[in-house]
Design a protein that fits this description.
This protein is mainly β. It contains no helices and twelve strands.
């Protein structure tokens, strides 16, 4: 968990500094990565415009990513319609990344960009790109 880069207005990375967890979701193999909303205030999920990820340099297909918030699963392409589901800034969520090959033990680099539309800005539509890069270990105590 040593390599870390974050570019955020608030200095807060959306990728948490927590171990990756090998898991299954809806019968599919993959892993979980813990994330936070980097915004300065709580937002509906419809404000999450995009999440792009790379694992060890390999691009993750957005169709292989599911956001799990408060026990409910949301595919990224559904989030634009979720204006009544709020993500509170202190709540952590998980990204399930579907992966055919198991994530090997040891360290992996997870990096990405979360594009967030801030509806409270009064200067028009305001989208912020939050980038993050972390070197994370795979949990061995699951």
């Amino acid at each position: 968990m040593s390599d870390e880069k974050e570019t955020s207005i608030l200095g807060r990375s959306f990728i948490c500094n927590e171990d990756l967890r090998v898991s299954t979701h809806a019968g599919e193999p993959g892993f979980l990565a813990r994330i936070l909303l980097p915004s300065y205030r709580s937002l509906p999920l419809s404000c999450i415009e995009r999440i792009d990820l790379r694992v060890d340099g390999a691009v993750v297909d957005p169709q292989d990513i599911t956001l799990i918030l408060n026990g409910y699963s949301h595919k990224l392409d559904e989030m634009g319609h979720l204006s009544k589901i709020f993500w509170f800034i202190l709540d952590k969520a998980d990204l399930f990344i579907k992966r055919k090959e198991p994530l090997g033990l040891g360290d992996h680099v997870l990096e990405g960009t979360m594009v967030v539309v801030e509806p409270y800005m009064t200067v028009g539509r305001f989208a912020l790109n939050y980038t993050a890069k972390r070197q994370l270990s795979v949990a061995t105590d699951i």
